[in-house]
Amino acid sequence: MSRIRPPHRRARRAALAAGVLAGALAVGAGPLGPASAADAPGTLARVDNPYEGAQVYVNPDWSARAAAEPGGAAVADEPTAVWLDRIAAIEGTGEAMGLREHLDTALEQAGGEPLVFQVVVYDLPGRDCAALASNGELGPDEIDRYRDEFIDPIASILRDYEQYENLRVATIVEIDSLPNLVTNVSGDTATANCQEMLANGNYVTGVSYALAQLGAIGNVYNYVDAGHFGWLGWDSNFGPSADLFHQTATSNGASVDDVAGFIVNTANYGPTVEPYYSIDDTVNGTPVRQSEWVDWNQYNDNQSFAQGFREELVRQGFDPGIGMLIDTSRNGWGGPDRPTGPGPMTDVNAYVEASRTDGRIHTGNWCNQSGAGLGERPTAAPAPGIDAYAWIKPPGESDGASEEIPNDEGKGFDEMCDPAYQGNPRNGNNPSGALPDAPLSGDWFSAQFQELLANAYPPVS
Ligand code: BGC
């Protein structure tokens, strides 16, 4: 297991000072080494785990915001993902750098060594059909705009950087989309939006198109979103999700070769590992799976889920070499309320309640969770089958507004972000556990950043 090294400070400072580097580095030899005949587009051999032996890109936009927070300098050099969450983000929005500028800065940060550039591709038609806070700019039927104005321009820019053999572009493809087609289309968890996206097929069409276009670029590693343990860990969701992912990755011109792996826990809060109880434990003969918290799930943390799901995906036809990522940006659950050992063996609920480090009210809670902390720092190859722990959701960026805020990004108001909300069937009708006074999703939420820092686990020194 190797801790992901921050990029060379010198190269980074130079890149920041130089500002826009486009043009100077767009073609020919660059800091990642000369382009040669062997590096011709389409001929690059992908490595098994792109994170192994590589630095990871530090997003200067996030880094500056983190550094401006009291105490934030301690983590401001950590790599976080770049989010392309709307068409305008590709060129840059004034507040945020565009894709080309990020890639040029990435070449500078690389300082001649391998570097992973993490980018979230997130603008499907009818986006996030069960979480209104992350609805997007494209209507449910706007698949043509998704192809022509979003994926094609991204692919065209990335192709300009294909020649840099040591630049490894990890794309996080369309979080929360396919899992919603499994769990939120029937029964009491159904939403009309998810039923519409299942019926019109545009999630599957969009994701498969993205995989095919981006997967055709030699230095791109596609990681498809695979929810999290508290979503797909139940038998009823597990197999059907893997099946849908395989169908998607083999339709519309895509193939399993376009998939480097999957990511779990993106922008979520579930622990990587529950250290003080195992899903196989029993208390007085009663399996912990029967506890109210676990509620028959097969998994109680994201790492065991990711490893189990990886095997299922391979069984369904994905390449045995696929690797998993875990978003550990906000799943640390440190601070004074963190358990320090297993709970009492009096009954199964008492045991699980006192053992679990997951501090949420329910595993279906996802918005600005109160009490959360920064999780494991980005790390390459931390465990078998896991390519990396990565910070994909930039800590300090809100999951959604706690009350309705008018905006032009298509973002709705989701009651799961209101601390007073008492829940729905998707979170077992529990309180939302959300922090108050939160801004729009993606906007800087200083109070949350401060809490994440204070409750970090491992602690931030
Ligand atoms: C928002 C995006 C934002 C991302 C990262 C998502 O929930 O919808 O606009 O870029 O979070 O903070």
Outline:
The chain is α/β, with parallel strands linked by helices and 461 residues long. The protein has helices spanning 9-18, 60-67, 87-91, 99-110, 143-159, 177-183, 192-200, 202-215, 229-232, 235-249, 302-315, 348-355, 446-454, and strands spanning 2-3, 55-56, 82-84, 115-121, 167-173, 220-225, 261-264, 282-283, 286-287, 323-327, 379-383, 386-390.
What's the topology here?
Layout: E1 2-3, H1 9-18, E2 55-56, H2 60-67, E3 82-84, H3 87-91, H4 99-110, E4 115-121, H5 143-159, E5 167-173, H6 177-183, H7 192-200, H8 202-215, E6 220-225, H9 229-232, H10 235-249, E7 261-264, E8 282-283, E9 286-287, H11 302-315, E10 323-327, H12 348-355, E11 379-383, E12 386-390, H13 446-454
Parallel strand pairs: 2-4, 3-4, 4-5, 5-6, 6-7, 7-10, 10-12
Antiparallel strand pairs: 1-11, 8-9, 11-12
Helix pairs in contact: 1-4, 5-8, 6-10
Bound molecules: beta-D-glucopyranose (BGC).
Detailed description of the structure:
The protein has helices at 9-18, 60-67, 87-91, 99-110, 143-159, 177-183, 192-200, 202-215, 229-232, 235-249, 302-315, 348-355, 446-454, and strands at 2-3, 55-56, 82-84, 115-121, 167-173, 220-225, 261-264, 282-283, 286-287, 323-327, 379-383, 386-390. The chain has 461 residues and is an alpha/beta fold. Helix 1 (9-18) packs antiparallel against helix 4 and helix 6 packs across helix 10 (235-249). Residues 5-43 have low confidence and may be disordered. The protein has one domain: 1, 4-beta cellobiohydrolase (TIM Barrel), CATH 3.20.20.40. Bound molecules: beta-D-glucopyranose (BGC). Beta-D-glucopyranose is lined by residues 83, 85, 134, 393-394, 397, 399, 441-442. Beta-D-glucopyranose binds at residues 83, 85, 134, 393-394, 397, 399, 441-442.
